Amino acid sequence: MKSGLHLSLKGVNYGVNQQKKVETELKYLKNNDLQVSVKWMTVAEGVNRLGITKMAIVKHCQQGHFVTRKVKMNGGFGYEIALESVFNYYNKLGDWDKCEKILNWIKESSDFGLGLKGQEGQNGFLDDTALAKYQVCKLLDEIILKADKKTIAIERFVNSFNNGSYPELLNVLGKISVRSVYRWYGDIKDNWDLSVFEREMKPTARTISNKEAEILIPMLINPNRPLVSEILKRAKEEFLKRGITIKSDVTYRRFIEDWTRKNIDLWTLGRYGMKSFNDKIIKDILRDKDRVEVGDIVVADGHTLNVMVINPLTGRPQRMTLIMFFDFKSSMPLGWEIMPTENILTIASALRRTILLLGRFFEDVAHRKAQGDTGYIPKIAYLDNGRAFRAKYFRGIKDFKDSIVPGLFGKLGIETMYATPYHGQSKTIERWFRTLGEMERRLPAYTGTNIAGKPAMLMRNEKLHQRLFDNTPITIDSLKATLEEYVKEYAEQEHQDGQYKGLSPAEVFMHSVNKIKSEPERLEGRLISRQELNYLMLSDETRTITKNGIRFRGNYYYNEEMPRIIGSKVIVKYDIWDDKEIIVLDEKERYLFGADKDDLRYHPAARLLGTDEDVAMLQEALRKKQQMKNETVQIFKGLVEMRNNDVKEEKREIISRRDAKNAKGKPKINAFKEYMKLCGIEPKIYSNPVEALLKRG
Q1: Are 393 and 328 in the same domain?
Q2: DSSP, residue by residue, 258-327
Q3: Whole-angstrom Cα distance, residue 347 to residue 393?
Q4: Among 223-237, 555-569, 670-684, which range has the highest average pLDDT?
Q5: Contacts of 29 (CB under 8 A, 6+ apart)
Q6: pLDDT digits (tens, 9 = 90+) for 489-508
Q7: Beta pairing partners, 553
Q8: Domain containing 234 — which CATH number?
Q9: C-alpha–C-alpha distance, residues 417 and 426, integer Å
Q10: Are residues 69 and 217 in the same domain?
Q11: CA 20 to 30 Å from 28, out of 138, 218, 292, 311?
Q12: How far apart are CA 421 and CA 434, in angstroms?
């Protein structure tokens, strides 16, 4: 006789080790006309649902009043009672109270169709999935009985099922496969026991004490990330000190897995830090990109490329830094620059490229003749929190008492926003840098993102791979060309998710550009010529003029006007992309002159060891030097002669004033001279008249 459907109630106290039944053996007593779909109950269910004591149930079973069956469990053997036999027994006794309870119980699970919800099962619950699988197997059983070829019949049934022939079942199970149907049918066809599909939903009680948990949990969230085996070793030592009975490793591991699954936020924060907690746990703030247009917000960041590139300055291979400005609206890469390190020059160059690139799409509106002569200034620059982005050149100075020169973004009218440190989701460009890894892996000089991810030819003793695969560093020009091609390829790829799913960055970009052109007021104050952009992006520094000129960025800059103001402090304005000339201003920012780079070096022994060209260069330098000297001497002589003329003119004026004075009246008589004359002494002989009188006696 086939077994009936095995069901039991949720909430029964089974104990820790009793999780599921693995074998059922039916033993019906004689003279009990049971139905095939009989419902079975446990002793505990009889106590809880029917109000019968445990001892009374055991006594009825021993006396044969109830039909029982022996079942094998994880913890040993037990038995279950046919609920129908219990009803028959109390019906004969006339105990209508218990009969009504049994009828209500049977009524709750009388229908085993798909529409029945809340069925109770062996471990407390039969969900819709188990009932749907049972129904599929019933349908399949009928089809197999009528089919000539079982394999073809099952394949047709699966295709029909997946195409919606049974919508309720499809809604619960989703699409099924032939292999899955074979497995379900094979599991249930022998006894048609629905318990085969029961889901383990009975909650398990904690198997360790609170004191043990208080010791284990702090060890789990250690930022050193100890292994589970190490945690258990240390925990057991602590248990022994506190007199706690030690359980098996399996028990502790089960607790650790369960606690980690239910406290993944604490696990992530403790073991992996705040950055990982922000990236994996904290909810993102979703921004509405429809509120802005192309060029309103540009996001900038630096990324160290995982490719070995030859440094053009040193000739040595190294990982270069990519500075990228990224359009927030369309996720379209804009201006970029590649340099050995993230510094001011690369950031400024990438910003300049971004402004000119955006301007190309509005040249027809600006009516510029030369292509690339128009720039489009962003409203906001959303920047990384790195040192280079926070440099004085970009931010200006908070206290303008120290300087009258604002930062570059201030000159261009661009507002700046800085991303939260170590908070990747606040910068959308971070995700694009991860996408860039596809390009990096295409190149032969790929280094991997970490030690574990290095290519095999970079590992030690991998001589075979080193012979077969090329890992030669590439040039910076080759890297730039590859990056340009990848950006073009990326621009045509459709977004896989997000607000613009199904649209490519190029499509979103051009749609927004056309919208801006249709609203001319959006362009007011945003367009700028290349010349204006270059002037506004001039940087400045303070320098002192020396005899050789102005020492700046490793070179001397000279102008013939400098010798007259040697030692003066001046302001130097320079173009970071052109080092041939600088502009010199006084401390009040008044223009003085321009100075050219003096990068000529002369042969130390040109006449004896040098070439004719070396001699000619030296002679030309000496000629200019002598010419400057002659000009300065000539000016000096002129000044001296002017001074002499002024002295002669002053003397003539003095004599003229004296003569004019004498002509007006008789000069005064010198009494001392008259006295000398009366004494017969010639005053011209002696310089001292008194000495002459003494000698005379």
Answers
A1: yes
A2: HHHHH-HHHHHHHHHHHHHHHHHTSPP----GGGS-TTTEEEEEEEEEEEEEE-TTT--EEEEEEEEEEE
A3: 10
A4: 223-237
A5: 64, 67, 68, 85
A6: 888 888 887 788 889 999 99
A7: none
A8: 1.10.10
A9: 11
A10: no
A11: 138
A12: 18
In angstroms, the CA 367 to CA 200 distance is 73
Residue partners of 527: CB distance under 8 A and separation at least 6: 359, 362, 365, 366, 374, 375, 376, 377
DSSP letter at 125 equals: -
Per the domain annotation, does 174 fall within a domain?
yes
Average pLDDT on 113-127 reads 44
Residue 623 resides in a domain = no
Query: Which two tokens mark 159?
Result: 């295709």
Q: Where are the alpha helices (DSSP H) in 577-611?
A: 606-609
Cα 35 from chain centre: 66
- DSSP, res 245: P
> Are 311 and 317 in contact, with CB atoms under 8 Å apart?
yes
- 401 with 322, same domain: the answer is yes
pLDDT of 367: 64
Chain mean pLDDT for the chain:
75
| Cα–Cα distance for residue pair 221/200, rounded to 1 Å | 29
Token couple for 79: 């038995």
**CATH number, domain containing residue 395:** 3.30.420.10
Parent domain of 47: 23-197
The string of DSSP letters for 58-110 reads HHHHHTTSS-EEEEEETTEEEEEEEHHHHHHHHHHHT-HHHHHHHHHHHHHTS
Question: Nearest Cα to 414, choosing from 391, 388, 392, 383?
Answer: 383
Most confident of 130-144, 225-239, 466-480: 225-239
Strand partners, 303: 322
Query: For 360-412, what is each residue's pLDDT tens digit?
Result: 888 877 665 455 678 899 998 887 665 555 555 455 544 333 333 346 777 78
